[in-house]
Amino acid sequence: SKPIISNAQNIDSLGIYLSQHLTDTSALRNIAIKLQLPALMGSAKADSLAALIKSQSEQLNYSKGIALSFRYLGLNYFSKGDYKNSTSCLYKSLSLFNELEDSIWIVSANQSLSSSYFNMGKQDSAILFCTKAIKAYQNWNDLKKLASCYNTLGGILWSKGDLPAAAEVFYKSLDLKVKL
To answer: Cα(50)–Cα(26) distance, rounded to whole angstroms?
Structure first.
């Protein structure tokens, strides 16, 4: 469970800091990233800070701040089970991260979109976005995250009823985890 008082204090501290640094793009970025922590996400205060970051980023024409704000909104909708709005916001963040050529956030957005589409029952779209994340982790030789993505893909394939493909992908995941 989340320590509510501590989270409220953390969000208040972030809000005070943000109010003193509204034109500092690094402050906007750092706070937008911190708000995505599960322990801070979803409160009215966090939502209002995310809206403020988005607004300030738009005024400053700061694309990364806008993208991170859409990511926050997408993750927040996801945590509330609103997968349609989650997908919409996550896709907007992905588009901006693509424009910025920010490969780390692109992969993260692809993974989040995969989860959101999966929860909407759109397995083919989930597979598409999960596969994009897998390709990136293969290129980066990040075996731990690659194993996790293979496991996710196996679950998607399993839910789709493609048991042979799911078994193959689960085996790849297990094989990588054993090597770690």
So the answer is: 15
Nearest to 167 by CA among 176, 179, 154, 177: 154
What end-to-end distance do the CA atoms of the chain give, in Å?
Answer: 30
Q: Are 46 and 40 in contact (CB under 8 A)?
A: yes
The CA distance from 180 to 178, in Å, is 6
Name the residue among 93, 131, 125, 86 with its Cα closest to residue 109. 93
Give yes or no for residue 5 having a pLDDT over 60.
Answer: no
Tens digit of each residue's pLDDT (9 = 90 or more) over 17-75: 667 766 778 888 888 888 888 877 887 888 888 888 999 999 999 999 999 999 999 99
Q: Residue 124 to residues 49, 156, 162: CA-CA distances in angstroms? A: 35, 9, 12
Closest C-alpha among 62, 91, 61, 64 to residue 75: 91
Residue listed under structure tokens 């779209």: 125
> Do residues 14 and 49 make contact, with C-beta atoms less than 8 angstroms apart?
yes
User: Which pTM value belongs to this model?
Assistant: 0.84
